[in-house]
Design goal:
Number of helices: 0
Order of helices and strands: EEEEEEEEEE
Oligomer: single chain
Strand order of the largest sheet: 1-4-7-10
Shape: elongated
Radius of gyration: 17 Å
Strand content: 25-35%
Helix content: under 10%
Largest sheet: 4 strands, parallel
Distance between the termini: 42 Å
């Protein structure tokens, strides 16, 4: 048996989760669309506005602006990603 068993009820793990509004993915009105969140996790309080998001994780309160591309990235809490930025 390992020294630390994460499922042992005698050793609870306490975490803090900030209560925020739901994350939002806003679309640019283009045909065909070149944005959206594919295979990504968007946390509460995020606004993904006209950004192409692929295989990435956005922590709480991240705001991305139009024409940005985020691929295979982890964006820390409350970061703002400007227009035309590539991460």
């Amino acid at each position: 048996m390992p020294a630390l068993d994460l499922y042992d009820s005698e050793w609870p793990i306490w975490t803090y989760s900030e209560l925020t509004r739901a994350g939002e993915v806003r679309a640019r009105r283009r045909r065909p669309p070149r944005h959206g969140a594919i295979s990504s996790l968007v946390s509460g309080g995020c606004i993904v506005s006209g950004t192409s998001l692929r295989r990435s994780l956005l922590f709480t309160g991240v705001h991305t602006h139009s024409y940005s591309t985020i691929e295979e990235a982890v964006i820390l809490p409350y970061v703002t990603v400007g227009r035309h930025v590539r991460v």
